[in-house]
Write a structure and sequence with these properties.
This protein is of the alpha+beta class and 82 residues long. It is built from 1 helix and 4 strands; from the N terminus they run βββαβ. The protein has one domain. A hairpin with a 5-residue loop joins strand 2 and strand 3. The longest helix is centred in the C-terminal third of the chain and has 14 residues.
Amino acid sequence: MEQEDRRYIVQQKKIAAGDEKPPVFAKVMRSKEGAFEGVSFIKSKEKATIMTVAEADQAIAWALKKKPNAKEYETKIICVGQ
């Protein structure tokens, strides 16, 4: 049986801030049944949701669609060890 490759997190960094502001990380919100409901961005890398690439793509797409200031941020998928 093949295991899912869950070792990615989503990172956002404000474009205009340069190196002044630290990046934030995605925490996925799920219903009690486990269905995807949305994303919030938090400062703690340790509390960020570890996910597959497909889940990370879903989180980025949701953020771009629902967050009005998403265009002000560089959003990328990074491996947990980075």
